[in-house]
Specification:
The structure is a single chain. The protein is of the alpha+beta class and about 80 residues long. It folds into two domains: about 1-50, Multidrug-efflux Transporter Regulator, Chain: A, Domain 2 (Orthogonal Bundle), CATH 1.10.1660; about 55-83. Helices cover about 65% and strands about 15% of the residues. It has helices at about 5-15, 20-25, 45-50, 55-80, and strands at about 5, 35, 40. A three-stranded antiparallel β-sheet has the order 1-3-2. Strand 2 (about 35) and strand 3 form a beta hairpin. The termini are far apart.
Length: about 80
């Protein structure tokens, strides 16, 4: 994979319009670097959006959710595990 994708390349990858991607970049929903007059999206951002990697904040959210479930349902989980 390339280090950067242009907005049209990224739109093709996602199967959505260029305009939709531009709007998300302008709104700050998709991080992009402006190089000259063009925006580029890094491969790390692409991987995160496609779900191939997890950001640190997403990892923390998952850890908190797991801790909450274990706290609430720990005894039941132990019973299910012993069957």
């Amino acid at each position: 994979m390339k280090k950067h994708l242009t907005i049209p390349e990224f739109a093709d990858l996602l199967g959505i319009s260029r305009i939709a991607v531009y709007k998300k970049v302008k709104a700050g929903k998709i991080p992009a670097e402006k190089i000259g007059r063009n925006y580029c999206i890094t491969d790390k951002t692409v991987q995160q959006i496609l779900g191939n990697t997890l950001s640190e904040s997403k990892k923390k959210q998952i850890d908190l959710a797991v801790k909450k479930v274990v706290k609430q349902y720990g005894a039941l989980l132990k019973k299910l595990g012993s069957e």
